[in-house]
């Protein structure tokens, strides 16, 4: 973990703009693309090829790419039969099902509380209607890990928003079906259909539709480099919730913080993968030294030590600053996915937070709660995009339709200003549409040639 002292050194260390992995892909990524496509392509070119093939060839392309990229034969069908869901739900532990159900209730309650309401001001003649999209597609990463929590964090806000149909795509595991815990979670929260496809081809299928997979209105959920690139490229044909990079946490702590808790929170972030960014900012030199010792002690026993060590070495940072104001200045510039305030009075700092996906107040609110049971979705902006984007929630599944409903008196109040602006823009027809209503006689005539 790199350690610097002072706000200026911290600003230099943490300075960044959005830098996506596809802008400078590792050699291993470039080589795998060359093997797959028989020539050198950028990641974006490779993903664009997959999207074009799926759009043109539908299910045939999905079967081909699933076999070539994932080593899975889905000739028996792309959709996961409902009975397989039920069997998966029976196969996972009762303890996990109980925990998922508990988490689901909190996630549902949070998003229900955050649901915006349609409104209309009859006196002023305007308002807004919030309308859900018809169909949403959620992507759940696969591979060696399983993410049933992400099913909850994506499907539940969609359902609360009123989305009628939710389809889920997740890679097949062990050459057959997606992970049983993912299928169990899909059954628990009422997903409508599940498909055993992953990667860029899954995003293409949901965006464009195939013979088996229906086209959706929004694609959401996290994924790897290729999934994120595919979401970037299909945006405009469908909505997307955001583009998500490696996960990150900034922990701000003062002298009252428990060093063991600080270290544990940093390691919880670092264990995700080698690209995760655990950042520690403190006003206490003594605490910084104690956290360093705690990191070494806890890391020695960490089951995912190889990931955590690499994350801390490559992307970890610690900054000693003179004040909490300086700490917040650095955090706001970094715009982290997660911001943890382990200070004497965390609520006093909240108003100074400008850029963060989520804020965790105090030692009893570790970021891990946000990953599973706190309530807000854990699908959050990364890579500095918290400067302009928000966590996944009901609003991503809603369209806002403006309402205009004037009566005769309202029309009279607005007419003159409307007509004057229209004429100033050279749109006489717009002005006539208003003045005709005020005089009930045509203001100009259109003559057609003989």
Could you characterize what this model shows?
By secondary structure, the protein is of the alpha/beta class. It folds into 3 domains: 2-19 and 245-374, Nitrogenase molybdenum iron protein domain (Rossmann fold, 3-Layer(aba) Sandwich); 21-116 and 128-242, Nitrogenase molybdenum iron protein domain (Rossmann fold), CATH 3.40.50; 406-439, no CATH class. The chain has helices at residues 7-14, 27-37, 43-57, 59-70, 82-91, 94-113, 148-161, 180-189, 199-208, 225-234, 259-270, 285-300, 305-315, 324-334, 346-350, 367-372, 408-424, 428-439; strands at 2-5, 119-121, 126-132, 135-139, 165-169, 193-195, 218-220, 239-240, 248-253, 277-282, 317-320, 338-342, 358-361, 398-404. The strands form 3 sheets. A 6-stranded parallel sheet has the order 1-11-10-9-12-13, with helices on both faces. Helix 11 links the parallel strand 9 and strand 10 (277-282). Helix 3 (43-57) packs across helix 9 (199-208). It starts with a strand and ends in an 11-residue tail after the last helix.
């Amino acid at each position: 973990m790199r350690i610097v002292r002072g706000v200026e050194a911290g600003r230099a260390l943490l300075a960044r703009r959005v830098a996506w992995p596809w802008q400078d892909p590792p050699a291993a990524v470039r080589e795998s693309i060359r093997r797959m496509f028989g020539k050198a392509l950028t990641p974006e070119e490779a993903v664009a090829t997959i999207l074009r093939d799926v759009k043109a060839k539908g299910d045939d392309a999905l079967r081909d790419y699933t076999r070539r990229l994932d080593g899975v034969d889905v000739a028996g069908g792309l959709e996961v039969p409902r009975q397989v869901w039920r069997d998966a739900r029976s196969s996972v532990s009762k303890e996990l099902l109980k925990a998922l159900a508990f988490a689901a209730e909190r996630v549902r309650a949070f998003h229900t509380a955050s649901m915006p309401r349609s409104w209309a001001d009859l006196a002023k003649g305007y308002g807004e209607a919030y309308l859900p999209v018809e169909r949403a597609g959620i992507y759940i990463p696969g591979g060696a890990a399983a993410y049933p929590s992400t099913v909850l964090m994506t499907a539940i806000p969609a359902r609360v928003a009123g989305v009628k149909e939710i389809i889920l795509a997740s890679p097949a595991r062990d050459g057959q079906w997606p992970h049983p815990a993912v299928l169990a979670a899909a059954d628990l929260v009422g997903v409508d259909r599940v498909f055993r496809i992953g990667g860029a081809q899954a995003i293409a299928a949901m965006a464009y539709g195939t013979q088996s997979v229906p086209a959706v209105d929004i694609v959401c959920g996290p994924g790897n480099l290729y999934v994120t690139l595919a979401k970037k490229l299909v945006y405009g044909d469908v909505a997307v919730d955001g583009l998500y990079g490696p996960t990150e946490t900034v922990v701000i702590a003062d002298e009252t913080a428990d060093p063991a808790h600080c270290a544990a929170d940093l390691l919880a972030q670092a264990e995700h993968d080698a690209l995760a960014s655990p950042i520690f900012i403190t006003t206490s030199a003594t605490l910084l030294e104690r956290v360093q010792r705690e990191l070494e002690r806890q890391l020695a026993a960490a089951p995912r030590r190889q990931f955590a060590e690499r994350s801390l070495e490559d992307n970890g940072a610690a900054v000693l600053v003179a004040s909490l104001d300086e700490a917040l200045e650095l955090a706001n510039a970094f715009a982290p996915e997660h911001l943890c305030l382990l200070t004497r009075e965390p609520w006093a700092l909240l108003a100074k937070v400008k850029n963060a996906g989520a804020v965790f107040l105090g030692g009893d609110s570790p970021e891990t709660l946000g990953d599973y049971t706190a309530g807000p979705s854990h699908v959050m902006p990364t890579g500095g995009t918290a400067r302009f984007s928000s966590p996944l929630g009901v609003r991503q599944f809603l369209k806002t339709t403006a309402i205009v409903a004037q009566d005769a008196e309202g029309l009279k109040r607005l007419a003159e200003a409307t007509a004057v602006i229209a004429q100033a823009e050279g749109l006489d027809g717009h002005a006539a549409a208003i003045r005709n209503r005020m005089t009930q006689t045509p203001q100009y005539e259109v003559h057609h040639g003989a």
